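Students often ask what a 'structure token' actually looks like in practice. Rather than answer in the abstract, let us consider DUF1433 domain-containing protein, a protein of 103 residues. Its sequence is given first.
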Amino acid sequence: MKKIIHILIIGIVLFIGGCGGNGMDKDEIREQSKSVAVEYMKIEEEKDFVATGVEFPSGDVGVVFVHGYCKDNKDKKMFVTVNYEDDYKVEGIAEGVKEKSKE
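Now compare that with the structural description of the same chain:
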């Protein structure tokens, strides 16, 4: 009986804790976020967005910044904020920002 209780407790802890993460691979998040940002800009903003990179901010906040530019103006840098923990919902757009340099 004690064994069953211990197994149930371990199972509940693993279920609630997510067993060490949300199970999403950074490459998967990166590619899906780029696609969402490009599609969003095309439909909602009527702009052809070219994604050049994806930035994961410090801390696990559930969002990424998809950096890029509009096809008609390569000098106009911008990024799209995508919340990958909320079904890849676009939360904002910022223009005139530079992408952080890669380390």
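One point worth highlighting: The CA atoms of residues 21 and 60 lie 10 Å apart. Ask yourself how you might have guessed this from the sequence alone, and why that guess would often be unreliable.
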